[in-house]
User: Fold this.
Amino acid sequence: MGLSGGEDFKWSLPQLREIHFRHYNLRRSVLVDQTNYFLNFEKKVRNKVYSRILSLRPPNLIYYGSRSPAELLKASGLTQREISNFEYLMQLNTIAGRTYNDLSQYPVSATLDLDNPGVFRDLSKPVGVLNPRNEEDIREKVNTNIYFKCVFSLQSLQYKYITNCFLILECEHVSRNLHNWIDLIFGFKQKGPAAVEALNVFYYCTYEGAVDLDAVKNDVERKALEGMINNFGQTPCQLLRDPHPRRLTFDDLVAKAMKTDRHLSLFYFLENLKVYFVEVSGESDPLVFVCVPRSQPKSIIQHGMLDTMVTVSSEGILGFHGWLPYEKAISNYFSFDKDPSVTNHKTRKRFSTQFAPGLKVTPNMFVVTHDCKLMISGGHSDNSLQVYHVGKNKRLAHICRHIDIVTCLALDYCGSHLISGSRDTTCIIWHIEQQGGVCVNISPKPLQTLYGHDNEVSAVHISSELDLAVSASKDGTVMMHTVRKGNFIRTLRPECRVGCSLDIPVIAVNDMGQVIVYSRESQPVNTKDELTLHLFSLNGKLLCTRTVNSNIGHMICKGEHLITGDDQGNITVYELFRLRQLTSLPLYVPVHCLAITNGNSHIMAGLRDGKLIIIGIKSPNEIR
Assistant:
C-alpha cells in the first residue's frame, strides 16, 4: 500500500486482526491494525478501502461489518463472554477509539504497587479535579461557562509549541489549574445531570461530532480548532445508550452454559476437575505431541461435527482423531474418536524421514497450522524442516537451511510466521504461504536468520503482533529479537552459581510478552539439579522466581495461567503473574506434552506410557 509522503508497505491478509475507524482531529478518517499503523485517508477513500478489505474476508479478523463503535460493541458479544475485567476494559477502550500509542490515555509507571490503594485513581472524578484544590474552581467555571482570555494569538508560532508540549500539559493539569494559552472558549457538551454534578464534562471540541474540520474553510479558524483538539484530546466514542447489561453471577453463568450446551473455561473450576484416560499409542511408544488447532470453523461445533485432534508419538506415528469438547448427551461431556490407523501397522501414518539417532523427541519439534491443513516437523537426521498435508498424508516440502538438526519450532498467533531453532545455534523465521485463507506451504526462502547463542537452541516463541522472537539455548541464555527486521533486542540470563552450568529446555510467552523460563542448574559435585521457574517482563525485568521439585517436561501459558507437566506425573496450574500454585493433579506417569483446547475447556496431556489424559470439569451434579 503506497502512502503519499511516506514509505510503501504491505501485509498479508492473515496478519490482519482488527481494523477500526479512528478519529484524527475528530475526523473519521483513519484505519488501524495490530501493527499500530494509522492510515489517514479522505473520508470517501477510507470507506472504499475498508469495504474492499472486508470483501477479501481476512481469516483472522475479529470484527466484521460494523462501522460505528456502538454497533461494534453490540456485534462483539463482549457483554456475554467469560473474560477478565482487564480484558473487557481493554476491549471497550479499543472499540471506543483509544489507542496504546497515546501515553496520556495509557500512562506507564516505572514502579507500581498493586497492593497499595493509593496508586489507584478515583474513577468517579475526571482527571482534572483529582486535586481537591481544583474542584471548586472548575465547578464555578462549568456552572458559569466562563470565557478565558488568551495569553497569545493562535496566528503566532506558539501553536507548534503547544502541540509539542501536549504530554506536559496533560501532566501539569492534574495537579494545577489548567492555564488557557490560546484564545479558546471553555464550554461543555450537555450530558446528563449526574455527569455535570460529578464534573465529568469536557471541553466541547473533544466530543465526537462536535466539530467538522472539513467544513471549516478559514485556515486560521481551522488551525485554532485543531489546536483545541490537540490540546484537550478526544473524548472516546459513546458505546452504550441503554443501561449496561447486569454482570452475571457465577451460578447464573453455569446455568446459562448448561441451557445453551456451551462449555466453560476450566480455570473457573480448578477445584472441580476430573481426569479421563484415553489409549492412543502403545505402552512402548510415548506420546510427545498433542494439539487441537485453534481456528477450525465454528460451524463444525455448531453442527455437532468433530474437530481434529493431532497426536505424534516418539516413533513418529501420526494420529488424526475426532474431538468434540461438549455434548450434553454424553456422560463425560466430550467425544474422542480415535484414529484407528494408529494401532494398525499396515495403515499407520508416519514421517517419511526418521528422527536423528539418540535425539530426545519433544513437543517443541512439531506445530500444526491453525486450520489443521499442515503439519510441520523438525528433529530429522538430515537437518530438514518438513511439511506434511494433514488430510492427504503427503509431504509437501523438505527444506534444508539449517546446518544441524532442527530442535524446536513455533507458530505465531495468526499462523502467518514460523520460527525454527537448531543445534547450529541459529533461529530462522519463515513465512507460511496461504491461498484464500488456507495454509498451503512454507515459503522456502527464510525471512530472517537470528544469531547470538553459543549452544543448541532448545525452545522458541514468535509473536508477529509484538514483533518479538524469543529463543532459549542450552548455554543458559534467552535472546529476544524483532521479527520484521531481525534486530537484537536483549538477552535474559537467569542467575547461575559460579561453577554450575545452566540449561533452559522450555520457555513459554504470554500475550503481553512476559517470558516464563524454566532452567536446570547442574552442579559438578551434587547430582541433584536446581529446578527453577523465572518470570521476566517484556522489557527484560525479572519479576519473580519459583523453585520446583520435579523436572518439567513441557509447559504452556494461557491468559493469566501457566500449566506445567513434570517427570513425576504432576500437572500443575499456576497463577502466572506471581507463579503461585493454584492446583496440582497427580497422574503418576511422566508427562511429555501438554495442550489446552479452544475455549479453555480441557487440558490434554500425553504420557510416557502412550496414554492421552483429558482433564475437564466435573458434571454439575458432582460439583454440588
Notes: The longest strand covers residues 427-435. The chain is about 15% helix and 30% strand.
